[in-house]
Design brief:
The complex is a heterodimer. Chain A is mainly alpha-helical. Chain A contains 16 helices and four strands. Chain B is globular. In chain B, the strands form four sheets. In chain B, strands 2-1-3-4-5 form a five-stranded parallel beta sheet, with helices on both faces. Classes of the chains: A mainly alpha, B alpha/beta.
Chain lengths: 329, 422
């Protein structure tokens, strides 16, 4: 499928999801759905660096928070429509990603992961001590009840949900394009063996910088509308541990080698968490991510995608190999 | 990929079942007159605020039992619909829309704590619900919602109440104090109170000799206490969170801090776990309390409530004393119940009007709300802990360890100075 066609198909799917929400006439669908979609974007962003390139980033929450705080700054300086804030959030977090790449990409494996964790702590300390964005007190972002678009009064949460849907489709399209391009193959070579890739003439540093920037930008975009969703942004909620954990757990559960993996993981785990919050509703909630991760590591180390391939009797290596042969001119 | 798209597009029996389940999850039938009155809220039953959240839930259930045994409200039984927000603000918007749109609750109560209350505000305002707040500080300052109410007795200027009480006591010292050190946690409560303390100290003409906040993750407080010691303040105002309060108190005694008066807003001293853990180390410290069993604080029904709560609290993993959170949560529910009865309906606008226009008698005394939904007059007790021996729990059930210094109508003694380390 060509990328524009892919994009259009998913836009249609998104429109159906949105229409289903309107049909239910139920704000809960939009609120719960927003959170799941936010995770789709976050997990897809993480997967570009973590899945395609093999660099595990524990600092997702920092990129998410940078996007959110970019919106808070803009809200105070010059209020802009949320779609523009998403772009600004993407640029800010993309730049943070680029900076992180320059500073840390000499590190590999666990050392890189620790460095990203440290980055999150440093950025959180910065925000806590920056009174303009509320500092440790937090910032109130009061959203209007409805948005006037061409005379139509649209409830604000439906607007945010629709934006997140479009953003999710864009993120998936970008991830798919990257996965199937020379860039994606470059990322895969770094994941498989960085030294060998370098020896073969793959410009690893440049590629890694592109991966950190792209990954950071997507995660920042996921965070940009968040202040309008939550209404009161505190450093502890923007830098919440659940963003770091979920953005790793979701691609791991779905499968990290393809754009579908984070999508499946985010929908499964995100929905499960939303449902568990209002059904089990006790500390057992917190067990879910842990148990699922442990279960998948043992039973399906390549995630749900890996399981599907296994059932079809087709190994990942075969699939990638065949695709390379088919798509390389 | 093709196979996947097919399963996504072609409706299988399993997919139809799943869709039906999804519709059932999001839809529910209309309410009937004989149905129970549903009161919805999210509560921290796991995570950092769980200890308070569980105690709050227990108090609410005690109220529910009592009301239902007496025939309910408006002839209908009362049902509590609640979910665990995991002490995580991000779960709150979803839970409150579920409560309103899916569970179709009739009344709303807030989660526990400022940062969990605020995320529900935009939703509550949009749906026009009356919102009874539990233990949040200054949430309505930004929203100015006329159907917001708050049970914590901090008064209309909630940020200034605790520092006000501390410095009111400091003014009674003879000779008058000349200098103050302000130590606050770098988080919402610490910052709000340290800011107000600074303002009041300046107005009083006190010299601020130390004014620093510490990151919430601090574990070693010795350097902070040493720096305070070096500045030789007459007063030390603290605005710390529970674990910090423990760390600071221990450091104060290890280093032997000499000052005339110390305390104000150390969160944690209100709870049995920290009272018993620190024991005699908090002697002569000043802490804020909302209720203590003193002879001047006799609200009708409070002693019976506390006794009943303490009996139920055994083995439930909640605060065994229950002097701080539970009576006020119970009072919040009493206020809601009385307002419904007085209004004679569940109309949210009429309910808010009833709440604004009336005084409610509860286990924590008479409650009257200011236009911004806070208590009309603050009623925080500034207490000096004394006569604490050992780490036993039972001594805290009696009036002996508490000397109320402020406000004057509840005063049980004069301030004792200096605060001395052993």
């Amino acid at each position: 499928m060509k990328s524009p066609v892919f994009f259009l198909v998913w836009i249609v799917v998104a429109a159906i999801v949105f229409a289903f929400g309107l049909y239910l006439k139920n704000d809960y669908f939009f609120f719960a759905g927003y959170t799941v979609l936010q995770y789709v974007v976050l997990a897809t962003g993480w997967n570009i660096l973590g899945g395609y390139t093999g660099y595990v980033n524990f600092g997702s929450a920092a990129f998410f928070a940078m996007g959110a705080y970019a919106s808070v700054v803009m809200h105070k300086v010059a209020p802009l429509p949320v779609p523009l804030l998403i772009i600004i959030g993407g640029i800010v977090s993309g730049l943070v990603g680029l900076g992180m790449g320059y500073l840390t990409l000499r590190l590999r494996g666990a050392f890189f992961a620790i460095a990203t964790l440290a980055l999150a702590v440093v950025l959180q300390t910065l925000i806590v001590n920056w009174d303009f964005v509320g500092g440790s007190r937090g910032a109130y972002i009061i959203r209007p009840n409805t948005l006037d678009i061409a005379g139509l009064q649209i409830p604000y949460i439906e607007y945010l949900f629709a934006l997140m849907l479009i953003l999710a489709v864009c993120a998936l399209t970008v991830a798919r394009i990257v996965e199937r391009s020379r860039l994606g193959f470059g990322f895969a070579t770094i994941r498989d063996d960085e030294v060998a890739a370098e020896a073969c003439g793959v410009p690893t540093l440049r590629l890694k910088l592109m991966a950190t920037t792209l990954s950071g930008a997507l995660m920042g975009m996921a965070g940009a509308p968040f202040p309008y969703y939550i209404g009161y942004l505190q450093p502890s909620s923007a830098f919440g541990l659940e963003y770091a954990v979920n953005s790793i757990a979701m691609p791991m559960i779905g499968g990290t080698t393809s754009w579908v993996g984070p999508l499946i993981g985010a929908i499964v785990l995100g929905t499960l968490q939303q449902v568990a919050t209002v059904t089990i509703s006790s500390a057992v909630n917190l067990l879910i991510v842990g148990l699922l991760l442990t279960g998948f590591v043992i039973i399906a180390p390549n995630g749900i995608l890996g399981l599907i391939h296994k059932f079809r009797g087709q190994s990942d290596a075969d699939k990638v190999g065949r695709r390379v042969i088919r798509e390389t001119p | 990929m093709n196979g996947m798209v097919q399963t996504l597009v072609r409706p299988t029996r399993r997919a139809l079942l799943a869709a039906a389940a999804a519709v059932a999850l999001f839809a529910s039938g209309p309410a009937h007159a004989a149905d129970p009155i549903k009161i919805g809220f999210s509560m921290a039953l796991s995570g950092g605020l769980a200890a308070n959240g569980k105690a709050a839930l227990l108090a609410m259930q005690m109220w529910q039992e009592k009301v239902n045994a007496a025939g309910g409200l408006l002839g209908r039984q009362v049902q509590l619909v609640h979910y665990d927000d995991q002490s995580n603000p991000n779960t709150v918007p979803g839970i409150y829309t579920k409560l309103i749109d899916v569970d179709k609750v009739d009344l709303l109560v807030s989660p526990y704590g400022t940062n969990l209350m605020a995320p529900a505000m935009p939703i509550v305002m949009q749906k026009g619900f009356t919102y009874m707040g539990l233990f949040g500080v200054g949430v309505n300052d930004q929203f100015n919602y006329d159907r917001y109410f708050q049970i914590m007795p901090m008064g209309p200027k909630s940020a200034e109440t605790i520092p006000d009480a501390f410095f009111a006591v400091a003014k009674t010292l003879n000779p008058a104090p000349k200098s103050v050190a302000i130590v606050g946690a770098d988080a919402e409560f610490g910052k709000v109170n340290a800011d107000s303390a600074r303002k009041i100290a300046k107005a009083m003409g006190l010299k601020i000799v130390y004014d620093r906040s510490y990151p919430p993750s601090t574990v070693d407080f010795a350097p902070i206490v040493r720096a305070v010691q070096a500045s030789q303040p007459d007063l030390v105002f603290l605005a710390s969170y529970p674990t910090d309060t423990v760390g600071i108190t221990r450091s104060i005694h290890e280093i032997g801090l000499k000052t005339r008066l110390i305390g104000g807003g150390p969160v944690g001293l209100q709870f049995a776990a920290i009272k018993t853990q620190l024991g005699p180390l908090i002697n002569n410290m000043l802490g804020y309390e909302l209720y203590v069993p003193a002879p001047t604080v006799k609200f009708p029904g409070i002693e019976e409530f506390v006794a009943a709560y303490q009996a139920k609290a055994v083995g439930q993993g909640v605060d065994p004393l229950g002097l701080y959170v539970p009576p006020f949560i119970y009072a919040a529910m009493e206020v809601m119940g009385q307002a419904v009865t007085k209004t004679g309906s569940l109309d949210q606008k009429a309910l808010a009007k009833t709440l604004h226009d009336n005084t409610f008698s509860t286990v924590v005394g008479d409650v009257k709300f200011a236009p911004n939904g806070e208590w009309e007059k603050p009623r925080v007790l500034m207490v000096q802990y004394r006569n604490i021996t050992g780490n036993g729990l039972d001594q805290f059930r009696k009036p002996d360890p508490y000397v109320i210094l402020y406000p004057p109508q509840f005063k049980t003694g004069d301030v004792k100075e200096p605060f001395q380390s052993k």
